[in-house]
Amino acid sequence: MQREYKLLNFDWLTIIIFMLLVFFGWLNIMSASHVGDIENYFDMSQPYGKQSIFILFTIVLIILILALDAKFYERFASIIYALSILSLIGLFIFGKNVNGATAWYGIGGMTLQPSEFAKFATSLAVAKYMSDLQTNMKTFKDQAKTMALIILPAILILLQNDAGSTVVYAAFFFVFYREGLQQIYLVIAVFLIGLSVLALKFNVVIASSVAALVIFGYHFFGQRKRPQLIQPIAAVILCVAVSFGVKYFYNSILQPHQKDRISLWLRLEKDPVKLLEMKQTILYNLNESEKAISSGGLTGKGFLQGTRTTGKFVPEQHTDYIFSTVGEEWGFLGSALVVILFVGLLLRILYLAELQKSTFSRVYGYCVASILFIHFLINVGMVMGLIPTIGIPLPFFSYGGSGLWAYTILLFIFIKLDSNRINEW
Amino acid sequence: MRKLLLLTVIVVVGFIFIARLFYLQVYNEDPYSLYEDNAIRKVYDYPKRGYIYDRHGKLLVANQPSYDVMFIPREVKPLDTLEFCNLLKITKDDFIKFYEKAYRYSPRLPSVFIPQLSRMEYAVLQEKIRKYEGFYIQKRSLRDYQTTIGANVLGDIGEVNNYIIENDPYYKSGDLIGKQGVELSYEEVLRGVKGIKFIQKDRFNRDIGPYKEGIYDTLPQAGKDISITIDSELQEYGELLMRHKHGGIIAIEPSSGEIISMVTAPSYNPNLLVGRQRSRNFSKLYTDTIAKPLFDRSLKAQYPPGSPFKVLSALIGLQENVVTPQDQFSCRHGYYLGNRRLTGCHSHVSPLAMNQGIAQSCNAYFVNVYRRIIDKYDKPSEGMDVWSNHVKSFGLGDYLGYDLKIGNKGRIPDADFYDKWYGKNRWSSTYNISNSIGQGEVETTPIQLANMVAAIANRGYYYTPHIIKSIEGESIDEKFTTRNYTTIDKEHFEPVVQGMFDVYNTGTAYSLQVPGIEICGKTGTAENFMKIDGKRTQLTDHSIFVAFAPKDNPKIAIAVFVENGYWGSRFAGRIASLMIEKYIKGEVTMTSMENWILTHSLENEYAKPYSGKEFGINRQSSLQVIDKITKDTVVNPSSTRTSSFNQ
């Protein structure tokens, strides 16, 4: 009886959405990667066959995660985090280079990507630290310490030349904000993003002028008590410096391909010849993926019937560009369903997180939602041309064992924590 | 508040994504078409184009294989270019030029290296092509003309142009389509239906396999063979007679409306427009603006018909009951209104009745008849419309509806026409008496005139002229087997036919009689003008002749136009008589008449307006005698100017 009681405690809605996403992802991987007829769903020579095995192994993982005691994760968070950092450092010695990034361990015929696992490890560590009774997230000291927990793996990953995975760590901003980060940081973050975009799209003068207008406007009309002028002037000078900094960063530090991606996203390139050339080179993927999605129409061409998918027109379609297969073969209805499933999953996790009685579970839930959301935002946004190209997978959907396992672990630890919520005072 | 940030962002992003999907897939979407999907290669399987036979079953147009040397630039391996260039008869510079052009187009896709090798060139190359990696030979089908005649009838095929590709989904770039003549008119019958295979491509444009196991693929359907109504022997003879003249001949079988021959001169050898030299030859023909060999004079040239039109005036007079065959009119070298001579005439007996009016081609007689027709009604405009409708019932003044795609309406004026010209009711029959004798505002094309003669030969009806005799397994259009009746009653034709018969017996074509055949004819001479340096200048009159034979149960109706031939019986009449004899007897016995035509040229006459010098016309023109033309004389459309054609 005790056992059944526990099963019922799992949030089955989340589990069902998870299963739907994995299954639908598997169908699309099959479509995007199959060569010739599909005879065996476990054909190890083809990606979809491997994915079948990955999924089977996922079941083992899930049972394992759910079987462990909920307290285990909180207690061992530090150790898991330490192991994960070690595995990232180990890459510098034993790592295998794929597509320019040294992000994999080769074990037999398989590869493992520790940066994927670092995501849940970091989440556990952050949750553990924030839930400590001594920690007060309103103080700068504790903010900085938590920040360090996040920046350490982020830097290690960046050093392995995997910029895409690094961006994911920005997700923790949402967690910080939820747990007490001052409002002013949000304002500054939005302000700085706006400033950078203006500086790149137009120029430093316009960006600085707009910034000055906003700052002085706030200074003269927004505040009841007017402090000295020195503050806004300093802020404006800072803005000018930041604008120049962004410009310099863009022009001198970014690698050419990264620069091109941003230039395309902001429509900076005006020369039609260069633009055409870009379309055939760095924009090629995006171009093909947009065409594939558009050609799907309302209802799509049907499973395994996508001409562009079958013709492998979109490179990396079964990994980062898997959403274009959905677009082509399942049309607007199928793609919108996937978007709705993701949004539903994220909202459900948020809802559950808010229900948690322990800070650890709540913070961890927030971490899960934020990380999954950043992946969803960047991946789907990129495939549809809304966001500059950043190569990260779509959770539960994209081909790849490490990714699938890492996101499954990430999610199911939370499901386990959530199921235990009643047992905590 | 803090709880809401992530929640709001998630929901907003969800909406943005769905909106973007909606924009990409629903709002922005062209309906998906397999044909426009560039992930699918469409491979067409071209069927055999139908053969064309003449009315007696003689093969005129067949197909011949042609061989294109193709290559895929990326797959070309270093080769002995000198030997290769020698084989293809090109220079090394050409080789580099072709290679680079194709490479720029696509290094992965096949391009044509040398198009349309002859069978000889192919034979030599076939042995050695395997030595040159990346090159291969592709077979295509071209037209093979079994004859050198009838370019205007048979037409030609060429690559389809962009306008058609955009408007007709059947045609794709590089397809061949009928451009002129029968090839154009019966394109859909001759071409058949091409088969199509859909092949899935990958992003490197390589084939991976049939799309959906080929369920949408179709097999080609062969084009149908057709027979045309042309008598190729008569056609050839007509083209021979018309050498060194400009003009046209149309011969129609009155009992069926079939076009027996359709000659335009100058013409060209249809073989010029086949193969590698097609475009070079075509532009030579196209740019010859003096001889205009591509201008089909038999269908398109719109001239005043001159005297042959008089027979219509007679018929209408009888039908409107304003004249009887016995009524006589006098002629004093012209028609006088008071003291003013409205039109001149040549010397003949006077007064005369209808029979001699036609036979002697008296202008005054027909002006009288015409005025009686117009003035029979209260207002000239009423009479004008009655006259105009009678004339139009002979198929004049509008497109005839024959199955060739070019032509002209001609012009038959009606009351409206003169109301616009002079003002409503501000004119009378004397304003336009020239219409009665086929001058003035009346204009016709040779085929309209031939059709008019056929209607007279049939005593009151005609079949729409047509070029199609039969289509393999199909019946021809019903409109070609339906009689079109004229507005003239049958009994009125006899006196007119008799008059036309007497044209040969006693009249203007007395010298053109063909022993053993009763021919009815009518000569015509039409004034014409040309603008030279902005000045309207009169040229030597056109020579016109219409005829049908035999008088009873006619087998052939013919109209001949010879530009600047001076008078009707001089060139056109002789040619018409020879054609009739050739068609009815199968041979020509009047060798002196034939010799005269074959040894006289009008090229000098045609060169006059372009000489820049003063020149005389009609009486002051002189005949140009040349060596006798034979069948084997090379056809050269612009013999006045030496330009060579690439065979």
TrEMBL record, chain A:
GO terms for biological process: cell division; regulation of cell shape. This is Rod shape determining protein RodA. GO terms for molecular function: lipid-linked peptidoglycan transporter activity. It is a multi-pass membrane protein. Keywords: Cell shape, Membrane, Transmembrane, Transmembrane helix. It comes from Gelidibacter sediminis. It comes from the Bacteria. The lineage of its organism: Bacteria, Pseudomonadati, Bacteroidota, Flavobacteriia, Flavobacteriales. GO terms for cellular component: cell division site; plasma membrane.
TrEMBL record, chain B:
One of its GO terms (cellular component) is plasma membrane. Keywords: Carboxypeptidase, Cell inner membrane, Cell membrane, Cell shape, Cell wall biogenesis/degradation, Hydrolase, Membrane, Peptidoglycan synthesis, Protease, Transmembrane, Transmembrane helix. GO terms for molecular function: penicillin binding; peptidoglycan L,D-transpeptidase activity; serine-type D-Ala-D-Ala carboxypeptidase activity. It is found in: Cell membrane; Membrane. Residues 247-576 form the Penicillin-binding protein transpeptidase domain. GO terms for biological process: cell wall organization; peptidoglycan biosynthetic process; proteolysis; regulation of cell shape. It comes from Gelidibacter sediminis. Pfam families: PBP_dimer, Transpeptidase. Transmembrane segments: none annotated. Coiled coil: none annotated. Its main location: membrane. NCBIfam families: pbp2_mrdA. It comes from the Bacteria. This is Penicillin-binding protein 2. It is a single-pass membrane protein. The keyword Cell inner membrane applies. Residues 46-207 form the Penicillin-binding protein dimerisation domain.
